């Protein structure tokens, strides 16, 4: 029986999203269920197993037709040992995930963190097709990243490369990041940071229509701030201008270091669209030296809600040395 399918599993704190793809990169079946982390490791593993069986059945495929299974997970992971070192949103520590999945399915199983997998998803199936070197940045609750060099994920000696959200951008900042440092770019330009800064300025007495757009300031998010800006709100414009400037300057620094072919931005904040991308490009043009990297395309993600599944499938392709699609 020929091997012609790949399974990708996106394991998160709230949901498990599993897809079956063919070797051309087409998604043939998808199954999404709640993670139910309260069930513990064994319970969640059983739920992962069930989704894999489900997508195989939906597509009329057999286990013997699988090249392999790719899994992406939040938190620090060790791709060599297949171990999830720490996943707070799952309540897991030192879980041998690859070993547990491989007990059920006698095919190669591969593990990667979610940001690196997203970069692979873009490389194989999204905005990174056709290039060999890219930087993927997700700007959402936090800021994460994945670095692809020579068509391969660059993981670093301790598998921690790409943790760009915790690069210190303003050492004098009084804001402490969740990692314990002060002044991380995540505290200045993530979706959480943008909302926090707007709330703090309103609470300090600055005028803004944002106050009348929500029942409680805790409801303020990037979407509300963007709506307020469109209606002419000065505070909203200033908050977004500062976040875009910080992110643009940060990306300019990364381009000086990495000189990649393309920068791809995903995550909730990327839904600002041209407000974000035009702003970042403007900052780069005005602040970068006149070198070729200044013209690096900054583009939105193209993998959408399936980024984790596609990234996990791309992980299998990369791991088995399959020729890249597109």
Describe the structure in your own words.
With 326 residues, the chain is an alpha/beta fold. The protein folds into two domains: 5-124 and 305-320, ATPase, nucleotide binding domain (Nucleotidyltransferase, domain 5, 2-Layer Sandwich), CATH 3.30.420.40; 131-301, Nucleotidyltransferase, domain 5 (2-Layer Sandwich). Helix content is 37%, strand content 21%. It has ten helices and 13 strands. The chain has helices at residues 40-59, 97-102, 114-125, 186-189, 191-203, 210-213, 222-230, 234-258, 274-287, 307-320, and strands at 5-11, 15-22, 27-34, 66-73, 77-78, 83-87, 92-95, 109-113, 134-139, 143-149, 152-153, 262-266, 298-300. It has a five-stranded mixed β-sheet with strand order 3-2-1-4-8, sandwiched between helices. The longest helix is centred in the C-terminal third of the chain and has 25 residues, at 234-258. The radius of gyration is 21 Å and the shape is globular. The mean pLDDT is 93.
């Amino acid at each position: 029986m020929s091997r012609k399918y790949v399974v990708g599993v996106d394991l998160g704190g709230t949901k498990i999203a599993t897809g079956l793809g063919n070797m051309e990169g087409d998604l043939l079946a998808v199954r999404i269920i709640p993670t139910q982390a309260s069930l513990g490791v064994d319970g969640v593993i059983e739920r992962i197993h069930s989704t894999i069986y489900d997508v195989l059945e939906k597509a009329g495929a057999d286990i013997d037709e699988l090249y392999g299974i790719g899994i992406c997970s939040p938190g620090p992971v060790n791709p060599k040992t297949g171990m999830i070192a720490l996943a707070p949103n799952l309540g897991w520590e030192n879980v041998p995930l690859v070993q547990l999945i491989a007990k059920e399915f006698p095919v190669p199983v591969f593990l990667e963190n979610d940001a690196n997998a997203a970069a692979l998803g873009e490389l194989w199936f999204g905005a990174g097709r056709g290039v060999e070197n890219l930087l993927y940045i997700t700007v959402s609750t936090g800021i994460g990243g994945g670095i692809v060099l020579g068509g391969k994920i660059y993981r670093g000696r301790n598998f921690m490369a790409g943790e760009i959200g915790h690069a210190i951008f303003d050492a004098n900042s009084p804001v402490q990041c969740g990692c314990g440092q002060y002044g991380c770019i995540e505290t200045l330009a993530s979706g959480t940071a943008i909302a926090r800064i707007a709330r703090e300025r309103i609470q300090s007495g600055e005028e803004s229509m944002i106050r009348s757009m929500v029942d409680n300031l805790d409801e303020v998010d990037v979407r509300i701030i963007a709506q307020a800006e469109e209606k002419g709100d000065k505070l909203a414009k200033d908050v977004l201008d500062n976040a875009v400037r910080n992110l643009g300057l940060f990306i300019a620094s990364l381009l000086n270091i990495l000189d990649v072919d393309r920068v791809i931005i995903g995550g909730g904040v990327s839904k600002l669209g041209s407000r974000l991308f035009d702003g970042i490009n403007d900052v780069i043009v005005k602040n970068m030296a006149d070198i070729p990297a200044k013209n690096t395309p900054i583009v939105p993600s193209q993998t959408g809600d399936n980024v984790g599944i596609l990234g996990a499938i791309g992980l299998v392709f990369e791991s088995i040395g399959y020729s890249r699609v597109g």
